[in-house]
Amino acid sequence: MGAGQSRDGDLDDSDSEGEEDYEHGTRQDAVATPFSSSEQNLASSSSKAGMEDIGSKLGNLSLTAGRTAADGNTPKGQWIIAEKSVSWEFTRVEENDDDEENNNDGHEDGGERNRSWKSWYLLVGNKLRVDLVSYGVWALKFPMQEDFQDFENEFRNCLFENTYLLEATEENKIKIFGKEFMGWAKPEIADDSVWEDAKDSLDMPADAKNLREDYVEPSRDIIQSLTMGARDHSYLMSAKGIEAVKNLPFGIQGKGVSVIFNEADSISYSTPKKAMLVRAESNLMVMRPIKESTSHSSGVHQVDVETGKVVTAWKLEKDGTPINMRDVINDSKGAQLDPSSSTFLGLDDNRLCRWDMRDQHGIVQQLDNLVLDWKEGHQFSRGKNFQCFATTGDGGIVVGSKDGKVRLYGTTSMRMAKTAFPGLGSPITHVDVTYDGKWVLATTDSYMMLISTVFKDKDGKAKTGFTGRMGNNIAAPRLLKLSPLDVHVTGNNPKFQHGQFSWVTESGRQERNLVTTVGSFTVVWNFRRVKESNHECYHVMRGLKTCYCYRIIPKEESIVDSKFMHDSFSSASPNAPLVVATSKSVSSFNVSKE
C-alpha cells in the first residue's frame, strides 16, 4: 500500500512552467485537478475574484474523468493545470453553502455548522502541496517552503477557531486541551516514544489490488445490522426478524434458525437496532428503539438462538422508574463466550450502568415482562452526551461523547473516568478498544483516531489509562483518513462508520487490522503499519501523523457494517475473514491474499 501522497500523482516541473513569474511577498500558487465536475468552483483556495477567473478558464478545459474504481493507492488520472498563478485567502462564511462534500475547507464559520465541518484536505509537506475536495480534487502547489509554511500556519489557526470558536492562541489551546494534552494541539512537541516499538507487518499485502469476494450470501430481507459470533453462527438483523448464518474458516455461509417477529407481538413495535450475544452465544439480547425516530430503547428481548423463540421481554427500570438506554454491550471483550455471565453494560446520554438478569437472590429469571436489576452505575446530572462505548478484555470501559471526548473508566467505578482524552472537536460516533486495553479507536464522520492509553507511572511501571491517571507528556493520536481523491469518489458527504479492530478475545493475541465503512466502501488499515513510527506517510504529511495507506473494498450499494470474524477463524491465514454486509447480501473476504 503506497502512501497517500503518491496516490494522486506529482505536479512536476513540466507542469509548473510559469513559476518564475512568482514574486516574493505575494501569495500565488499553481492549481491543478485530476478530476472535476461541470460545477466550476474552487472552494477555500482562492478569493472570489480568483474563483471567477478560474471558473471561466475551467469551462474551456477538457478534463479526464477516467476513474472507474476507487482503490487504496493507484490513481487512474493525471493532474491537469487549471491556473498557473492564483492567490489564496481564508474568508468567513456566514451561510451554509451546499457544495459537493458539504464543506468549506479552510473557511471559518460560526454556529452549529462548525460542529459538522468536514476536513477533506491533505497537506503534503515534502511536495509543498495542498490537496482538497470541492466539486473535484484540487491541488495548490507552492514554489517555496516559506510560502507553504505561511499557508499551513494560517490554515491550522483557522481550523482551530472554526472548531472551538476561539482564537488560536497558546492560552486557548491550553484551555481546550490542557497542559497534559498539548501534544494533540502541537504534534511536534508530543512524546512519540510509545509508538517506537511497533513493527511493520506484511500480514496484509501492500499492493493496490481490490480484494476478491470468497463467498456471497444473499439475504431474505433488508439487512439492518450484523452481529458476529465467535462460535458456530453469526446473525443478520432485519425489520422482520433475525437470520442465522454459519461461521466457516473462509467466511460465513448458509442459513440456520430464523426468528420471525410477529406483527401482533410487543417485540415488533419498531425495527430492531442491535442484537448482543450472551451466555456462550446461546442467547441474543435484542434491542429495539422506542420509535423509529429515536435510537433509545426502554427494554431488551432475550432470544434463545436454538429455538428461535423470545424467552423474556426485559424492562429497564431504576427504583421503579423506567430507564431508556442508547446502547448495550457485554461486560468485557470475551464475555459473550462465558456461559455463566448474567450481566451486561448499558449506556444513555448521561448514564453508564450495569444490568443484572438475576433477581436480588441470585436466581436467573426466565419469565415474561420482568425488570432488569440496576446492579451498579452512575446517572450524571447533564452534559455528558455519551454516544458509544466498548470494553477491554478485563472489563475496562471506553466511552465516546458528542463533544469529541474519549473517557476511560476502570473496573471499580463508573462515577469518575480514570482518563479523559480531549478529542479533536468532532463528535465520536463509535469506539473500539483492543483486548489488552492499550489502544482505542474512535470514529468520527470524517476520520478515525487511534489513541495509545499506555503510560509509565512514577516507578517506571507500564500501565494503561484504564488503571491510572496518565499524567504529562501524553502521546498524540494517529489519524486515519481517506485521500481527497477517494473522498471525491465516495460521492456526496461520505461518513466513516463503525471503525473497529479485528476481533481478539485472548490474552497475548494482537489485533492485526482496523476496518471501517464509508458509504459503499469498506476500508482496511494494517494496524502494525499505522503504529510504525517510520511509516512513509508520517515523513511527508504535516500536523498530526495521518495514515492514508489502506485497502478499499467497493460495493455497488451502501454498506451496513464490516467486521472481521473472530481470531479463531485465522488458522488457515494470518487474518480471519472479513465480513461485509450490505442491505441485500453478506460477503466474505480474505485480506491476506495477494
Automatic annotation (TrEMBL):
<feature type="region of interest" description="Disordered">
    <location>
        <begin position="1"/>
        <end position="51"/>
    </location>
</feature>
<dbReference type="InterPro" id="IPR055559">
    <property type="entry name" value="CYPRO4_DUF7135"/>
</dbReference>
<dbReference type="InterPro" id="IPR036322">
    <property type="entry name" value="WD40_repeat_dom_sf"/>
</dbReference>
<feature type="domain" description="DUF7135">
    <location>
        <begin position="71"/>
        <end position="178"/>
    </location>
</feature>
<dbReference type="Pfam" id="PF23581">
    <property type="entry name" value="DUF7135"/>
</dbReference>
<feature type="compositionally biased region" description="Acidic residues">
    <location>
        <begin position="10"/>
        <end position="22"/>
    </location>
</feature>
<feature type="compositionally biased region" description="Basic and acidic residues">
    <location>
        <begin position="104"/>
        <end position="113"/>
    </location>
</feature>
<dbReference type="InterPro" id="IPR013863">
    <property type="entry name" value="VID27_C"/>
</dbReference>
<protein>
    <recommendedName>
        <fullName>Vacuolar import/degradation Vid27 C-terminal domain-containing protein</fullName>
    </recommendedName>
</protein>
<dbReference type="Pfam" id="PF08553">
    <property type="entry name" value="VID27"/>
</dbReference>
<feature type="domain" description="Vacuolar import/degradation Vid27 C-terminal">
    <location>
        <begin position="271"/>
        <end position="542"/>
    </location>
</feature>
<feature type="region of interest" description="Disordered">
    <location>
        <begin position="93"/>
        <end position="113"/>
    </location>
</feature>
<dbReference type="GO" id="GO:0005634">
    <property type="term" value="C:nucleus"/>
</dbReference>
<dbReference type="InterPro" id="IPR015943">
    <property type="entry name" value="WD40/YVTN_repeat-like_dom_sf"/>
</dbReference>
<feature type="compositionally biased region" description="Low complexity">
    <location>
        <begin position="36"/>
        <end position="47"/>
    </location>
</feature>
<dbReference type="GO" id="GO:0005737">
    <property type="term" value="C:cytoplasm"/>
</dbReference>
<dbReference type="InterPro" id="IPR040458">
    <property type="entry name" value="Vid27"/>
</dbReference>
